[in-house]
């Protein structure tokens, strides 16, 4: 019951902030821009789909950095984090409720963007080579690959401020793009910045009928690293927040 109450409180906190609007307008803008470009682009089908999903993978760290910064600053402005720190008996639940809210909004925003894109791509541009189930699974892959980013950015934004979170997001976006090149072929399974772009690209190849037997070991390693990284980061973030007493100065 405490968790449900805390989630309800977190939802109420977002009512007078651009938090919800950001999660609606950004997906609309991204999908609209890609569809507008693809309406006259000479790219082939696979190239268009790959570019869209890799573009999302590269852009998500910046968006995550921004929304985590917004969530942190809301707490700072409302009472210097006292809403999260005052109730020591449910302190971890307060942290988890904020993290869960961020993840729920992320899940909704990713699915909204991909739903708009897939509908426009299939129904308006008549690119019907892949089914809606393909796009749904791609959304799940992107979401799962970025869970660890939310825990990292929530830590950075609470501990160091909004500037650090947004700046880190920009650096991470560049790293995601870099690892999509040949430089990331061998190391991507071990780095969080390589998971989203490679997982979704491999899903596209699989759906297009490409045999990925030779990459089976890399894929399995990446999946295990992703799951293990999420669990380890969650445990460490809870331990950190349990000992955290607020930020000394606002940034």
How would you concisely characterize the structure shown here?
The protein is an all-alpha fold and 251 residues long.
Describe the model.
This protein is mainly alpha-helical and 251 residues long. It is built from nine helices and no strands. Helix 2 packs antiparallel against helix 3. The radius of gyration is 19 Å and the shape is globular. The two termini are 34 Å apart.
From the structure above, extract its key features.
251 residues; globular; mainly alpha
| Total of helices | 9
Determine the N-to-C terminus distance: 34 Å
* Percentage of residues in strands: under 5%
Instruction: Label the structural class.
Output: mainly alpha
| Low-confidence spans | none
The strand count comes to 0
Radius of gyration: 19 Å
Largest sheet features: none
Instruction: Sketch the topology as an H/E string, one letter per element.
Output: HHHHHHHHH
CA-based shape: globular
**Helix amount:** over 70%
Assembly annotation:
single chain
Mean pLDDT: 89
Task: Give the secondary structure arrangement, pairings included.
Layout: H1 2-13, H2 19-38, H3 45-79, H4 82-85, H5 91-124, H6 132-160, H7 162-179, H8 192-207, H9 216-243
